[in-house]
Each structure stands twice: as C-alpha cells, then as structure tokens.
Amino acid sequence: MAGKDYIWGLGRRKTSVARVRLAPGNGAIVVNDRPLDAYLPVERLRGLVNKPFEVSETKGRFDVFVNATGGGISGQVGAIILGVSRALIKAEPASEANLRRHGLLTRDSRMVERKKYGRRKARRGCQFSKR
Predict the structure, then answer these.
(1) Are 89 and 52 contacting, i.e. CB atoms less than 8 angstroms apart?
(2) Using CA atoms, how far apart are residues 27 and 123, in angstroms rounded to an integer?
(3) How would you classify residue 107: left for phi > 0, otherwise alpha for psi between -120 and 50, otherwise beta?
(4) How far apart (Å, rounded) are the C-alpha atoms in residues 21 and 11?
(5) Cα distance between residue 9 and residue 66, in whole Å
(6) In Å, what is the CA distance from 108 to each residue of 16, 41, 55, 103, 111?
(7) Who contacts 46 (Cβ-Cβ below 8 Å, separation ≥6)?
(8) Residue range 39-78, pLDDT digits in tens
(9) Cα end-to-end span (Å), the chain
(10) Residue ranges covered by each domain of the chain
(11) Which of 3, 22, 67, 88 could form a disulfide with 62 if both were Cys (CB 3.0 to 4.6 A apart)?
(12) Angle between helices 73-91 and 43-55 (to 10 degrees)
C-alpha cells in the first residue's frame, strides 16, 4: 500500500509519542509490529484503545498501525487514544463532536514535575531528625 492511502494521527501523553496510521480494513490493530493482544496484556488498556472506534461507530472499518515510543505502557495507551482519535477525525469529520464529548481529543498536558535541588524528589524533603 502506498503512503498516500494512510490517514495519520499523532498522539502524546507524558513522555510517550504515538504515530498512528489508519487504513481501510477489518479492524486489526498492530502496535510496534506486534498485535494489540501481545503488546497490551491488560484487558482494561485494550478496551481504552478501542474506545475511539466505539464512540465514533467505526469499529472494524479501519486497520490501525501504531509506532509508540517513550514512557510506559499507560502513557503509550493515552498517546495511542489521542492519535487514533485525531486520525478518525480526518477520516470521518462527522464524528468529531462525539469524540470531543467523550474527552478523547483533549491533550492531557500533565507531565512529571522536575526534581528540585536540596530535596529527595520534586516536593519530598529530607527526613527531619530532631536529635
């Protein structure tokens, strides 16, 4: 398949980045060259990845190819959700209102707070010793 046939979407969450490609197909989801079931062993996270398709009523109409980097599994799932939602808008502009109503198009901007000098973590200080 040529690169022009794909619909692209980019998602970010914490330090994770997911580059998502949608192609007309039968609903296969591949993440980092592995099927979704092999990449995400937790059923709850697999359900979250499928949520944009359920909300936009396009389940089983697109094949999804994801390249996810950085962060952990949870951050990558959040990035995948945003990337799939953005790509679905390009494919089906009518579904934007529904996706937005379910909060799937909002970029979660929360990042890890940086560590400050003189402290053990970002806010946790050293343990106080009276004697």
Answers:
(1) no
(2) 45
(3) beta
(4) 11
(5) 10
(6) 11, 24, 19, 10, 9
(7) 36, 37, 40
(8) 999 999 999 999 999 999 999 999 999 999 999 999 999 9
(9) 72
(10) 3-101
(11) 22
(12) 20
DSSP result, 11-77: EEETTEEEEEEEEESS--EEETTEEHHHH---HHHHHHHHHHHHHTT-TTSEEEEEEEESS-HHHHH
Domain 3-101, CATH class in plain words: alpha beta
How many other CB atoms sit within 10 Å of the CB of residue 21? 20
Residue-wise pLDDT tens digits, 71-127:
999 999 999 999 999 999 999 999 999 999 999 999 999 999 999 999 999 999 999
Both tokens of residue 80? 């995948």
